[in-house]
Amino acid sequence: MKRNSSTKKEQQFWAYTFLFFPLMLLAIFVFIPILFSLVISFFDWELMASQQNFLGINNFIEIFGDKIFYKAMLNTVLYTIGVVPIQTMLALFLAFVMNQKIRGRTFFRTAFYIPAVTSSVVTSIIFVAIYSKEGLLNSILGIFGFAANDWLTNPHTALISIMMLNIWTTSGYFMVSFLAGLQNIPNSLYEAAKLEGATKRQQFWHITVPMVRPVTYFVVVMSLIGCFQVFDQVFVMSDGGPNNATTTMSYYVYQNAFRYFRLGYGAATAIVLAGIIMIVTVIQKKYFPPNPY
Amino acid sequence: MATIEIKNLQKTYPNNHYAIKGIDVSIQEGEFVVLVGPSGCGKSTLLRMIAGLEDISGGDLFFNDKLMNSVHPKDRNIAMVFQNYALYPHMTVYDNMAFGLKLKKMPKAEIYQRVTDAAKTLGLTEYIDRLPKEMSGGQRQRVAIGRAIVRQPDVFLFDEPLSNLDAKLRVQMRTEIKRLHRKLRNTMVYVTHDQIEAMAMGDKIVILKDGVVHQIDSPINLFRHPQNKFVAGFIGSPAMNFVSGEIVKEEGLYFVTQGMKISIPPPLQVSMEKYLGKSVDMGFRPEYVYDKGLEKERRLSTDVEIEILVVENVGSETYNHFRLNGMDTIYSYRSSSSNVHIPGEKLTVGIDLERLHFFDVETEKSIL
Amino acid sequence: MAMVYLGPFIFSVIVSFSDNKNLINQPGQIVNSGWTLRNYIYIWKDLPFATWLFNSVVITACQTVTNVFFSALAGFTFAKLEFRGKNLIFGAMLASLMIPGIILIIPKFLIINEFRMINSYPGLILPGMITVVNIFLMKQFFETMPKDLVQAALIDGCNYFQMFWKVFIPNSKPALAAVAIYTFQGTWNEFMWPLIATNTSEMFTLPVGMASLRYELLTDWPAIMAGTILVSIPTLIIFIIFQRYFVQGVASTGGKE
C-alpha cells in the first residue's frame, strides 16, 4: 500500500459529513436516553434538584411490592392477549376478502384504513361519545333489548371497551400489510392447488396462511409492541379509571413521572416494561419464527 | 487519445483476497483492447481501476506516461459505458448526454452542438426528448454510448455493454461500436465474458483468469497459438478437445492414448523429446477433425474409430459429439452440413497433424 | 363491514352539524335536529383551536421536511457509500429499534428540560427530526438502484452530494412520498410527546388541545365533534390523495423481516 486511495477517502469524508447531523440527533434523542434511563432508574430524580438522591435498586424493589404496578401489568397483559390475536386474524381475513375481485375495492380499502390514519385522540373522543351511557352503542343494543351499560365507567367493561377501539383502529392498517403479502403469492400456486382439487377454504389454510407467515410475524410483533405500550386511548377515555381498571403500564409510567413527578420510579417502571416487551418478542422469534421453511 | 500503461497492478480486498494479482498490460494509442475471461476473473475490477472507481492496492497506472493512481475519475478524461446502461432515469436523452458537460460548466451552445452531433452519429436525433424508460434496450445503450462520446474522452471504457441485449441486437451493436472506433480512433478498453465478442471486436485481447493475465495477443494468434491449456479451451466454440496420453518412441515420437496413436509433427519433435515416457495433454479443435472417407488432401493422423452420440445441426454446419473408445469424456467434431451423421453411427476420423496442441500436465503451458 | 369502520366518523360528522346539544344522548332525535355551522364557528372563535392548528402545522411541516431530508441522506449513505464504522453504526441503529419507545420518554424530557426547551417549538420539533425506521426505508429503496448509477455520476464529475441531490433524489419520489406521508401522519397525530413537552395552552398541538377539551366541554358534544372533524380533515385529504404511496410504504415495511 504505497499511495492512499482517493476514492475511498473521499467516500469516507462525504459519508461522515452526511451522517453527522442525523447521528447527532439520534445520539441525543435515542442512544443517550437509552443509557440515561438506566441511570435515572437508580435515583429519586428531582426535576429542580441540583444533586440527585441515589437509591440503588430501591425503585425496582418498590415495584415488586407495588399493587398498582401488578394491576397495571395484569391490565396490559389482558389487553395484549385480547387485542393481538383478534386484530391479526381480522386483518388477514379482511385482506383475503379484499384480494378477491370485488367491486369498489379501493373504496373498501380506504374505509378500513381511515381509522388507522386518524389521530388516536380523535378516535378516542368519538368512542367516548359512542360508549357513553345514552350513547350510540347503547341505543343500538337497546333495539335488541339489551340494558344500557355505562361502558367506560363500569370496571368490568372499561378495559374491553378500549380493546375494541384498538382492534377497530389498527386492523385496517395491518390489513394493508397482509394485502401486500397476499399479492406477492404467485398465482401459479393457487392454480396448482386448483388442479389438485383444493377448495377455497383449503387454499386459504394450506397456501395463503403459510405463505404470508413472514407478514404475520411482522404484524404480530408490531401489534405486540403497540399493545404493550398503549397510552393515548387510556389517557383520553378513562384516565386509568375507574379504580385503576384501565391503568396500563405505559399510563402508569406517565402517571408516576409526570403527575407525581417520581421520575426515577417512572424510569424504573419503563425499564421493566421494556424488558417484558423484549423478552416476549425474543420468545416469539424463537418459537414462532417468521420463516421456518 | 492516450496510451495506457498498466504496471504490476494489484487489487487486494480487506480480507486479503486478491482480485488482481499483478497485471502488466500496455495499450497503444487508438487501440481497441478487449479484456475477457470467465466471471470472477477480475476483468471488471481491472476496468474499474482504470476508470478510478476502484482503488489501486499496488502497482502503477499511467495514461500518456502520467501516473493516474490517485487521480479522481472525473479528472482522468475517460468515459464509461455500463452493462445496465446506468442512464439517469429522470433525464431525457438530451439531458443524460449533457449532464456531465453541464457539471463542467461548459457553455450551453457547445453542449448543444456536441449532444446533437452525437445524437446524429448514433441515430438518436428523433428520440432526443424521450426518457430512458420509453426506449428499447438497444436505444438505451446507444444513449449510454452517446453520453461517452460527448465528453470527447481520451479513453472509452466499456463494461460488458452488450450482455443485456438479445442475440441479434448484440451482433448489430458489435459492428456499430467497431464502426464508431474506426471513426473516432480513440483508445477503447472493452470488457466481456463472451469470447466470440472478444474475438470479433478486439485488436488485442487480454485473457484473464483468477486475477492473472494468461495471454495478451491478437485474436488470430490466440486461436492458433494459445500459450496454455486455459486459453486453448477458452477460445473457440465448440471448445477444444483435450485428451491425456503418453509420449512413446518408436521410429519417431508418438502420442499414445486408448485407441489412438498420433505421430508428433516434426517441428515439435525436439521439444517433445524430454517428455518421453511421460504423460502430456493433447488438444485438438473440433474444426480439425476430418472424416477419413472424405478428406484426402490434409496430412491426417492415423485412423481413430469413434461412435457418434449426439448430432447438433445448426444449419451451416453440424456439431457431432462422440466418445473415444472406453473413455467417458465427450468430444466434438465439426462437419459440414452436407455430411450429416446420425447418432450411433461408427466412423473413422483423423485429426489434422498441423493443428495439434500439446500441454505440460503440471504447468498447463503449451509445449512449443 | 365498511359501515363498522366508517360509521363512527359519519356519526361524528352528523353530531358536529347539529344544533341539539343532547343529540349525543338521543341518537334517535337526528331527524328532529336542526342543522348549523355554529359549532365550527364556536371552536374556531372562542377556543384556541386556531393556535393549536398553527402549532400543529408548524411542527408537522418542520419535522416532515427535515425528517425526509435526513432519512434520505442517511439512507443513501448507508446504501451507497463505504466508510469505516458503517456496520457498527448501522448495527447500533438496528439495535435501537428493538428498544421500546416508552423508556425514552423520561430521559428525553429531562434532556429537553436541560436545554430549556420545554414548552417551545424546538423542544417539540427536535426529537422528531430523524426516525430510524425512515432511514431503513430509504436505505432499502436506494439499494434497489443500480450501483452503476453511482459510477456513471462519478465519471460525469458529480461529487457525492450532487450525486445524491441530482441523481438519486429525483428518482426516489415514491419512497420519499411514502416517508413524507408517514412522518406527516405520525407527527400530526403524535400525542404523548407534545403532552409531556408542553404546559400551556398556547403551545398545545391539536391532539393535546383536543384531549384537554374532553372535560371542559363534556356537555357540548357537537363542538367537540366539530373539533375532531377539523383535526381529521388534513390527514384524510393527504391520505386520499397519496393513498398509493401510503400503501406502498406499509407494504415495504411489512416485507422487511
List keywords for this structure.
heterotrimer, A: about 290 residues, 2 domains, two-stranded antiparallel ribbon, globular, C: about 260 residues, 14 helices, about 70% helix
Give a brief outline of the structure.
Chain A has 293 residues and is mainly alpha-helical.
The most extensive contact between chains is:
A-C, 97 and 90 residues
Which regions of chain C contain 5 or more consecutive residues with pLDDT less than 50?
A: none
Integer tally of domains of chain A: 2
Evaluate the radius of gyration of chain C: 22 Å
The mean pLDDT of chain C is 84
Query: How many runs of DSSP E, i.e. beta strands of chain C?
Result: 0
Helix percent of chain C reads: over 70%
Shape of chain A: globular
Count of individual helical segments of chain A: 13
Number of domains of chain C: 1
Explain the overall architecture:
The complex is a heterotrimer of chains A (293), B (368) and C (257). A two-stranded antiparallel ribbon of chain A has the order 1-2. In chain A, strand 1 and strand 2 (53-54) form a beta hairpin. The model of chain A has no long low-confidence stretch (mean pLDDT 84). Chain A has helices spanning 6-40, 58-64, 67-98, 105-117, 120-131, 136-143, 158-183, 187-195, 200-211, 213-228, 232-237, 249-259, 263-287; strands at residues 43-44, 53-54. In chain A, 72% of the residues lie in helices and 1% in strands. Chain A has 2 domains: 2-40; 65-287, MetI-like fold (Orthogonal Bundle). Chain B folds into 2 domains: 4-230, Rossmann fold (3-Layer(aba) Sandwich); 241-360, OB fold (Dihydrolipoamide Acetyltransferase, E2P) (Beta Barrel), CATH 2.40.50. In chain B, the strands form 4 sheets. A 6-stranded mixed sheet of chain B has the order 6-7-8-3-9-10, with helices on both faces. A 5-stranded antiparallel sheet of chain B has the order 13-12-11-14-20. A 5-stranded antiparallel sheet of chain B has the order 15-19-16-17-18, with no helix packed on it. Chain B starts with a strand and ends in an 8-residue tail after the last strand. The mean pLDDT of chain B is 89. The longest helix of chain C is centred in the N-terminal third of the chain and has 32 residues, at 49-80. Helix content of chain C is 72%, strand content 0%. Chain C is built from 14 helices and no strands. At the B-C interface, strand 6 and helix 2 of B face helix 8 and helix 9 of C.
